[in-house]
Design a protein that fits this description.
It is globular and about 55 Å long. With 170 residues, the protein is α+β, with helices and mostly antiparallel strands. The chain has 6 helices and 4 strands, in the order ααβααβαβαβ. It binds flavin mononucleotide. The site of flavin mononucleotide (FMN) has 11 residues, from strand 3.
Length: 170
């Protein structure tokens, strides 16, 4: 079975090494547009974004994570937030943020970009908000590092589907 969506799902890999090529504003706009078309409970659209390209800010953010080299080398970063003022249910809003982040990864794939979901930086989310000048009412969910892939040799594995199926009642 093939479809552009399924192909993007299977082809996407986390990209952690990038070329210097610029990610245009148009592409970043498309990525954020794809992000906001994720589903959300009650269609409350609780996500908010910060786009970061400034090397001085990237350098400061890089200090907040073990994966600083990725943050510094990415051409652009998209920090994904939940706006606490828009939230109605912690679990469901967090799930919505996950769907939104996955849309970003798939949009990047569709635009020939590479991306990686960075979660380890959440341990310093208070500091990240300070660097970006954002209020505590914005709760960091992830930073997605974006750029043109240096190569596409990444490999990833999944366990066999049978290991995940608890029941298959037909
Ligand atoms: C919640 C979450 C947090 C993650 N945090 C990091 C991270 O901090 N650094 C990193 O290099 N990759 C991070 N990743 C990427 C995973 O390592 C990656 O998705 C996984 O190894 C599977 O590889 P694939 O994306 O190429 O299929 C994260 C992924 C998720 C979903």
């Amino acid at each position: 079975m093939t479809s552009p969506v399924l192909e993007a799902i299977y082809r996407r890999r986390s990209i952690r090494e990038f070329t210097d090529k610029e990610v245009t504003s148009e592409k970043l706009h498309e990525i954020v547009k794809a992000a906001i078309w994720a589903p959300s409970g009650l269609n409350n659209q609780p996500w908010r974004f910060a786009i970061i390209k400034d090397p001085r800010i990237k350098e400061q953010l890089a200090e907040q994570t073990h994966y600083g080299h990725i943050v510094e080398n990415a051409n652009a970063l998209v920090a994904v937030y939940l706006s606490k003022e828009e939230m109605y249910d912690t679990v469901k809003d967090t799930q919505s943020a996950g769907a939104c982040i996955q849309n970003i990864l798939l949009a990047a794939e569709a635009l020939d970009l590479g991306a990686v979901w960075l979660g380890q930086i959440l341990k310093n989310k208070v500091e990240v908000n300070k660097i970006l000048g954002l209020a505590d009412s914005f709760d960091l969910m992830a930073i997605v590092a974006l750029g043109y892939p240096l190569h596409r040799k990444q490999k990833s594995r999944r366990k066999d589907i049978s290991e995940f199926l608890l029941k298959n009642i037909q």
